[in-house]
Design a protein that fits this description.
heterodimer, A: 114 residues, 7-stranded mixed β-sheet, globular, B: mainly beta, 6-stranded mixed β-sheet, 5-stranded antiparallel β-sheet, 54% strand
Chain lengths: 114, 113
């Protein structure tokens, strides 16, 4: 593991289900991110949390709801999803101060909506 | 916002050849440019990065060059090996108090033995 752990690794859910994705980092980073990775598309930023506060929401549909209870944990709550939401959901963390640093990614959750 | 274009989408080379992947960015305020490697079924991993105050950086067989005037940066892999086969992503960001990376679409590199 890299220090960023995502669970579950795979998830199949119906369009009426409610589920949550979990991300945990033990790197002491202060920023966490959710990205969506679909085939033949760039990694799409969904949410950014910096010092536990949401600082960016890239026009993500309300059926995706993030939660960041502390700087080490990040959740993505899912409800009434659509088949086109099937993708790999990647969590990442970074240490942000006055310089940019690269991300450490988790292994992702492969989501299939049926 | 930032827009990152990456080319080519697929690159096939013979083992031992060099590979070059190119990216352009739109926001002249961007000052940090990382490259990630993602092997099949695995997470993206940072392999090299460059900041806007340098023009080139090397790490063994990989190097990155940056042309701020033209707003493009490139990844160079020399003496390619089959284990270099993966999808490579470029990204760009500027310091806004947190690092929001904008990624390119990725390049699938295939190295044939």
């Amino acid at each position: 593991e890299t220090g960023v752990t995502q669970t579950p690794r795979h998830l199949v859910m119906g369009m009426t289900n409610k589920k949550s994705l979990k991300c945990e980092q033990h790197l002491g980073h202060n920023a966490m991110y959710w990205y969506k990775q679909s085939a033949k598309k760039p990694l799409e930023l969904m949410f950014v949390y910096n010092f536990k506060e949401q600082t960016e929401n890239n026009s993500v549909p309300s059926r995706f709801s993030p939660e960041c209870p502390n700087s080490s944990h990040l959740f993505l709550h899912l409800h009434t999803l659509q088949p086109e939401d099937s993708a790999l959901y990647l969590c990442a963390s970074s240490q942000d101060n006055d310089r940019n640093y690269g991300y450490t990614f988790g292994s992702g959750t492969r989501l299939t909506v049926v | 916002g930032e827009n990152v274009e990456q080319h080519p989408s697929t690159l096939s080379v013979q083992e031992g050849d060099s590979a070059v992947i190119k990216c352009t960015y739109s926001d002249s305020a961007s000052n940090y440019f990382p490259w990630y490697k993602q092997e099949l079924g695995k997470r993206p991993q940072l392999i090299i990065d460059i900041r806007s105050n340098v023009g080139e950086k090397k790490d063994q067989r990989i190097a990155v060059t940056l042309n701020k005037t033209a707003k493009h940066f490139s990844l160079h892999i020399t003496e390619t090996q089959p284990e270099d086969s993966a999808v490579y992503f470029c990204a760009a960001s500027w310091n806004s108090g947190y690092s929001t990376l904008t990624f390119g679409k990725g390049t699938m590199l295939l190295v044939s033995p």
